[in-house]
Design brief:
Number of strands of chain B: 9
Order of helices and strands of chain B: EHEHEEHEHEHEHEHE
CATH class of chain A: Alpha Beta
Number of helices of chain A: 2
CATH superfamily of the largest domain in chain B: DsrEFH-like
Number of helices of chain B: 7
Strand content of chain B: 15-25%
Low-confidence stretches of chain A: none
Structural class of chain B: alpha/beta
Oligomer: heterodimer
Strand order of the largest sheet of chain B: 8-7-6-5-9
Chain lengths: ~80, ~200
């Protein structure tokens, strides 16, 4: 049985920023996904992670000067 | 001559139309237009079971079938035959995803790598998962240990999706011993999966 679970989704202004996030973020703290349909803004790629990683991810983006656009909790089939 | 247009009709509707038309004829020729081979086969089986002459021509995606009824051949109770035709009609959807490359699209492999990862993620989010994922040529690199999409392929496999990787391709790249998930397959199985698919998805 496939189950849905809430995930934190962060969008970016450009694919370059999204790719920088993938390059910078330590493994196990999320992944790149296509921007979900529920979000209309963004470059096409988003970062998805467990919601409890939010503070850590925001710090990572601050430290590495990766600008982000929007963050939202969205349900996905578990990944 | 009576004409029946069954273009665009899903099975078993073409057979039902033919049955009704033949029931209204005492004898003569019936012309039926359909747009798929399965309908032709089903109508042929039905017509021959009613001892009618059957022939067809194919042109520009349309099959023109000619059925000649020589006598009042249709029995009153012909429902059973239509039901029988239904049983031979592939009614369930079979989606097969054919992955021919370890990146998606041409032009920029870095972008293609991101796109193929996005593609596999999105596959895992479908409410109706595909029946099979076929991986061939450099697509075979996606089901081995260390693949950037392995987690998604494992999730698909665990959800019941058949993962089939081309053995010739694994051997070509020298990675046959690195297969992480699914089955090693051959061209006969690949062709059979594609042949029996109702939908083929190629990123």
């Amino acid at each position: 049985m496939r189950e849905r679970a809430p995930k934190l989704v962060i969008t970016f202004r450009s694919t370059t920023d999204a790719m920088m996030m993938e390059k910078t973020c330590p493994a196990g703290n999320g992944r790149l996904i296509p921007v979900p349909r529920e979000i209309s803004r963004g470059c096409g790629l988003a970062w998805a992670a467990e919601p409890d990683r939010e503070a850590f991810l925001l710090q990572i983006m601050r430290d590495n000067e990766i600008p982000w656009l929007e963050k939202k909790i969205i349900e996905f089939y578990n990944f | 001559m009576i004409q029946v247009n069954a273009i665009g009709d899903a099975c078993p509707l073409p057979v039902i139309k033919v049955k009704k038309a033949l029931e209204q004829m005492s004898s003569g020729e019936l012309e039926v237009l359909v747009d798929n081979d399965v309908a032709v086969q089903n109508i042929e089986r039905f017509a021959k079971s009613r001892e009618c002459a059957f022939s067809y021509e194919k042109g520009d995606g349309i099959f023109t079938i000619r059925i000649v009824k020589s006598a009042d051949d249709i029995s009153e109770d012909s429902t059973e035959q239509v039901e029988d035709v239904r049983e031979h009609t592939p009614r369930s959807v079979k989606r097969v995803v054919a992955i021919a490359s370890n990146t998606m699209g041409r032009g920029d492999d870095v972008l293609g790598d991101i796109l193929i990862k996005s593609f596999f993620f999105t596959l895992t989010q479908l409410d109706e998962l595909p029946h099979t994922v076929l991986l061939y040529n450099s697509g075979a690199k996606l089901s081995i240990h260390g693949s950037p999409v392995l987690k998604d392929i494992v999730a698909l496999h665990q959800a019941g999706v058949r993962i089939m990787t081309c053995g010739t391709c694994l051997n070509h790249f020298g990675i046959a011993d690195q297969l992480a998930i699914g089955d090693i397959t051959n061209m006969y199985d690949i062709v059979d999966e594609l042949r029996t698919a109702t939908h083929i998805i190629r990123p």
